Amino acid sequence: MPVLAVDEEGKALLAFVEQGTPGLTVVDDWSGFGQRTTASGTVIAEQVRLKPFQIFYTHRSYDRPTFAGPFAQITTAAIDLGIARAALADTVDFVRQQARPWIDSGVERAADDPLTIVAIGDLQYRLVAAEALLERAGRFIDIAKAEPTEDTVAEAAIAVGLAKIATTEISLLAASKLFELGGSKATQGRFNYDRHWRNARVHTLHDPVRWKYHAIGNYTLNGIKPARHSWN
Fold first, then answer.
1. Do the beta carbons of residue 67 and residue 137 sit within 8 Å?
2. Residues ≥6 apart with Cβ < 8 Å to 92
3. Across the 232 residues of the chain, what is the mean pLDDT of every consecutive 10-residue run?
4. Strands 55-56 and 2-6: what pairing?
């Protein structure tokens, strides 16, 4: 089991501890309502004794420029984009096949409701924009991988931060709009559409997107490079 810790100087360490090691207790208390594999349950470590080869000084990985942080972040952004794609696809299908038009729209099909059409157009534009930012971020990561310098790594982190904002916002928006455009029928358990919102809401919490705005603003305004770690 990988255990993240800090030494006396406050620097990050990663210890790989065997299950059953005295002092290590895994509390199966994670009960998140979505994205099950992002579990963040409780683990208690009390006087756990380790051998030197079980300890990795992970902070040294970031003493020099590395694309590891942006690479880790782009994978989470890609997951959020996938959730958004699925939510929008289900919205389009439901509006075409199941939803009813609002009485004041004057149309017979929900797919012909002018306000629904506008909303779908807005979601599609935001989805395509997020896809473009994600692809753009990938190119910056490729550059940082080929030539990892202070500048290329910082630019990759900022590019991924922009993509992370876009994918976070569209995943949450698309998952919510599904019910707004589908109507009350879309909330029935047999469709299981709430999974999109639950997954998006839980997954996007692990790396708060509000700090992406800060990193981007600080870099743009003051030229300050983002801190190097797995969340940038």
1. no
2. 120
3. 84 88 87 70 88 85 85 96 98 97 94 97 98 98 96 97 98 98 96 96 90 96 89 71
4. unpaired
- Secondary structure element (H or E) that encloses residue 44, with its range: strand 42-45
CA angle 174, 134, 156 (to 5 degrees): 140
Query: Counting Cβ atoms within 10 Å, is residue 10 exposed (0-12), middle (13-18) or buried (19+)?
Result: exposed
How far, in Å, CA of 43 to CA of 39, rounded? 11
pLDDT tens-digit series, residues 94-113: 999 999 999 999 999 999 99
- Helices 68-97 and 150-182 pack at an angle, to 10 degrees, of 20
pLDDT confidence of residue 127: 98
Pairing of strands 42-45, 55-56: unpaired
Residue 39's pLDDT is what?
61
Q: What stretches of the chain show up as alpha helix (H) in DSSP?
A: 68-97, 114-146, 150-182, 194-203, 210-222
Please tell me the distance from the alpha carbon of residue 79 to that of residue 144, in angstroms, as a whole number.
Answer: 22
The Cα–Cα gap between 204 and 225 comes to 23
For residue 19, which amino acid is it?
Q
The reported pTM is 0.85
CA distance 105 to 203: 36
- The whole-angstrom distance between residue 70's C-alpha and the CA centroid of its chain comes to 12
